[in-house]
Amino acid sequence: MNSHRILTTLLCAAALASCDKNAVQPVVFEPLAGARIKFFNFGVNAPGVNFFADETKITAVVSGTGSEATTGVAYGAVGNGGAYSQLAPGSHTLTGRIAATINKDTAVAIVNTTVDDGKLYSFYMSGFYNTTTKKVDAFVIEDPVVPPTDYSVAYVRFVHVIANANPLILYAQYTTGDTTRVDTVTAAVAYQGATAFMTVPAGVYNLFARYTDSTANKVTRAGVSLIGGHVYTIGARGDITITSTTATNRPFLDNTANR
Q1: pLDDT tens for residues 86-99?
Q2: Could you check whether 35-142 and 153-257 share the same CATH topology?
């Protein structure tokens, strides 16, 4: 009899839990516990790296055998698949360290920074990798992401990660309707700088980055989907002198979702 009652109670609890899971839940944006950070390897010619906060490894790539791969986060990639990683508030030494067996764990990018509770950040390896010193530029910026208030628009900001480029302005061409119209999305941004988040109508765009004194496109990317209510960082990376359209280190506009 007691076993029957216990089983009945468990089945009722399971049914209630199932109903709760299937019910429509309101979207709630709660404050983050701790800080959050994502890591970009945008250092031209830089090796694949693992990212560390102090001596704690934050990112790593798993191989097919289940062990850690020696490729790390390659150039042009974002650690942890573009997701934010949790980080305790306070002062940290953030590093990108060589993932390969040769020169394993040599720190090629180092930033000392302080992160605050509940805030989002991005760490960028940037500039050009020096094969002699085994060093590359790096910087950290705050990602001032807030819950969207308008789901008919996308939220976009621009980060300049091209060491040999002048300040850049981001432009967007809507690919439907008046395709001759090119809107200025951001103000000019210098190397290692970032704009605030701006809004653009949701849709598909061709994106251009230009110098402040020119109408010529220095960096382009076609067919970028910007979904309403989503938040994006457009990052300019690469070598501005490269004219090839296929070279790995060509100027490129990366699009990474913050939310």
Answers
A1: 999 999 999 999 99
A2: yes
